[in-house]
Design goal:
6 helices; single chain; DNA-binding; 5-stranded antiparallel β-sheet; alpha+beta; 21% strand; 261 residues; Helicase, Ruva Protein, domain 3; elongated; 2 domains; N-terminal domain of MutM-like DNA repair proteins
Length: 261
DNA sequence: ATTGTGGCCTGCCCGC
DNA sequence: TGCGGGCAGGCCACAA
């Protein structure tokens, strides 16, 4: 599923291939996919004749700026959404998502004057598009999170550490698989109260967030150490302990009871 | 405010 | 071979 890492790949794709191309037409056949009262007609009126001028990202949201004082276009990809420009996908494979080439799953298509297009293909319709998204609703991006900022994110919260890290209003970009991987590497129990970490543990966690994002940046969220072991009968690749499966923060959570404390 | 829960979307996989 | 049920997780509405 797309997390920060995949959305960053989408951002780079959009930046490399979708900027500066005059928009001729917008096709948005699924009204449900348009958020915040947006309609296909309004979206078309807002974009046609303009060009995308910049591709930014906060957490899992992709932001496309438009020319001529045009609106900001915000795209969310849910867990099965893919970005394609001129038919080229931003990532090769998406775990939990079909990689079939089904045009009916295209929820948004921005057609350029030159005949190419930018489109979002989202089988499960969990993503969406909106104009002028509220940028203050998302916490600081997980990429570049310093120990000091992480300490503020965790605060004195008694919520499970994992739930706090997945709370997009506190820190944005981390999803279920990525958090399991980060906590596995950090040797921290996902069920620990978020505020119970001592300063050394906060520094350690911040370091593993950075290193995990760097390391998986070219491989994808699913390419972690613990990823392949997230299944019944899976054992810890590090010490061989059977992994424990729990629901934490409303999400299926796999962790090692031996080295995650 | 904080924390937890349930529902939504629908393709896919497993077992019968 | 077809079918039904469970599962996946990001996000939101809602409750205590």
């Amino acid at each position: 599923m797309p997390e920060l890492i995949e959305i960053e790949a989408y951002r780079r794709l959009a930046e490399a291939k979708a900027l500066g191309r005059p928009i001729a037409e917008v096709v948005a056949p699924d009204a449900w996919w348009l958020k915040g009262g947006l309609t296909a007609g309004a979206l078309s009126d807002a974009l046609v004749g303009r060009v995308f001028t910049a591709a930014r990202r906060t957490g899992k949201r992709l932001l496309l700026e438009t020319s001529g004082a045009g609106p900001l276009l915000g795209l969310r990809f849910g867990m099965t959404g893919k970005l394609l420009v001129d038919g080229t996908a931003g990532v090769d494979e998406l775990i939990y998502s079909s990689n079939r080439d089904v045009g009916a799953w295209d929820r948004l298509m921005v057609v350029f004057d030159d005949g190419g297009d930018l489109r979002v293909r989202d089988a499960r319709r969990l993503g969406g598009a909106e104009l002028e998204p509220d940028e203050a609703r998302l916490g600081p991006d997980a990429a570049g999170l310093t120990p000091a900022v992480l300490a503020r994110v965790l605060g004195t919260s008694r919520a499970p550490l994992k739930a706090r890290l997945m709370d997009q209003a506190r820190v944005s970009g981390l999803g279920n698989l990525l958090v399991d991987e980060i906590l596995y590497r950090s040797g921290l129990d996902p069920a620990r109260p978020a505020g119970s970490l001592d300063p050394a543990e906060v520094r350690r966690l911040a370091g593993w967030i950075r290193r995990t994002l760097d390391r998986l940046g070219d491989l994808g969220s699913h390419a972690g150490e613990v990823g392949p072991a997230r299944r019944p009968g899976g054992v810890c690749p590090r010490d061989g302990t059977p992994l424990v499966r729990r629901t934490i923060g409303g999400r299926t959570t796999w962790s090692c009871p031996t080295h995650q404390r």
